Amino acid sequence: MEFFKFTLTLTAIAFLSATLSSSHPGFNFGWGSPGGNGGFSFGLYPEFYQSSCPQADEIVISVLERAIANEPRMAASLLRLHFHDCFAQGCDASVLLDDSATIVSEKKSLPNRNSIRGFEVIDEIKAKLEEACPNTVSCADILALAARSSTVLSGGPNWELPLGRRDSKTASISASNNNIPPPNSTVQNLLTFFKRQGLNEVDLVALSGGHTIGVARCATFKQRLYNQNGNNQPDQTLEKAYYYGLKSVCPRTGGDNNISPLDFASPARFDNTYFKLLLWGKGLLTSDEVLFTGSVGTTMELVKKYAEDEGLFFDQFAKSMVKMGGISPLTGFEGEVRKNCRRLN
Ligand code: HEM
Ligand SMILES: *[C@@H]1O[C@H](CO)[C@@H](O)[C@H](O)[C@H]1NC(C)=O
Prior knowledge:
single chain, binds protoporphyrin IX containing FE, 2 domains, Peroxidase, domain 1, mainly alpha, disordered N terminus, Peroxidase, domain 2, two-stranded antiparallel ribbon
């Protein structure tokens, strides 16, 4: 129903644009799961702050409600921050560290610079949590909690979130550069990047559904409009009217910071329209559209299923978010709980 107004919104683009394997070494869930240090390691579990900071999630939600009401895109920015944290060195809040004598910040990496945002909202959450429960809630858990509630507040699914991550004392700009997939990736590239993190093709398609909210800069999709294969031709998989709309936002030269919604039909609503748009040749990034047009049959089938069944997408998104949030966490006595997410204690 809501469907038919999508084609009408084409001119509005220009306007808008001013199941976990416990054997996997990267994951660490469950209290007392076997680890490398003498056969015992701490795990992540939902009740981690139940006695030490029972109000933690409420505090996160109260800050987010205001921030997202003020700027709906903030939900998208915070969801992406957790992804970029987890893919570089594990979910350890390394992405939040600023440059210092000992730290080369990940904020300057190719995928991050002029791009990731939301740090002030994380700072505000952290300040409120330090007031309520000093030295208790890690910045890495704040990122995971913020990603979950950003999803929920945008209309998406909720899930039980394992907690107990600790914060790194290091950052890795090289991991950020090398482990976060670029937007012009083929589907085979994407699968390789995700497998490196212990994530499979189901996780890839479901998590790409995070692009149901938020925007991307012209620089990240320009190649598709003007020179997709080195022959000065646009990407043939782009639907024509959508292509013309994008060109008006993203000229051949300049305009690199002009933005366009990843899901132009409902850019602030967490729903399954992202997948419907892919079926119609209206995915914004190469990495989006190839999930449907690329040569891997399973990803195409999954795109179709999620386009048909929003409930199925929501269930899998929740599962895959828990899985992504379990990438190589620091636990127990590893790392620290930072007092200020931007620097080491
Ligand atoms: C599959 C590989 C992925 C690629 C190649 C990719 C690439 C990108 C790019 C290029 C942008 C725009 C950045 C800019 O304009 O500077 C973006 C934005 C975004 N990404 Fe991804 N992404 C991927 C996976 C994910 C995942 C797994 C999530 C979360 C579950 C996610 C969530 C987002 C969100 C919410 C935005 C919008 C952010 C905002 O508006 O501030 N992405 N992504
Ligand atoms: C992707 O973009 C980068 C940076 O612009 C470029 O060097 C690379 O050749 C592109 N890859 C493909 C497959 O087009």
